[in-house]
Design brief:
Elements: H1 2-10, H2 23-46, H3 56-74, H4 78-99, H5 104-130
Length: 132
């Protein structure tokens, strides 16, 4: 994480961008929520209590979420990172919509994740623009 924080410092950022140290604690909390809520969905799919298609946006979200750090800091490609974070945001919305009628607490649990990723999406799009 220290390496990512140093790379984050190199970007031209808007005045409202949070400090690099804030990302780790926020993501630590969010990953705990994600793990518990996603595990509940995958467990119910595994047990046959939910259809397989319900797990699709959750699975895609994991893939896009993991890909973001590699794209942003590994490949250092702001444009692909911007596209990827839009996919993360889109899958969160899809997850909430698809799980709402089935497991409401999982939908509610995604709200902090949704809010943070919405903010991060605006930040990423702004950083992409400023560093074009």
């Amino acid at each position: 994480m220290v390496e990512y924080a140093l790379q984050y410092q190199e970007y031209i950022k808007p005045f409202w961008a949070p400090p690099a140290w804030l990302f780790s604690p926020v993501w630590l909390v969010l990953y705990a929520i994600i793990f518990i809520s996603f595990a509940a969905v995958f467990y119910k799919v595994y047990k046959g209590k939910l259809k397989n298609r319900v797990s699709v946006p959750f699975f895609l979200n994991i893939i896009f979420n993991i890909a973001f750090v590699n794209i942003q800091f590994g490949f250092k490609n702001n444009i692909l990172a911007a596209i990827d974070i839009l996919l993360v945001l889109g899958t969160i919305i899809w997850m909430i919509v698809i799980i709402w009628p089935k497991i409401r607490w999982v939908a509610y649990a995604q709200i902090p994740y949704l809010l943070w990723v919405a903010f991060a999406t605006i930040l990423q799009l702004t950083i992409t623009y400023l560093n074009w």
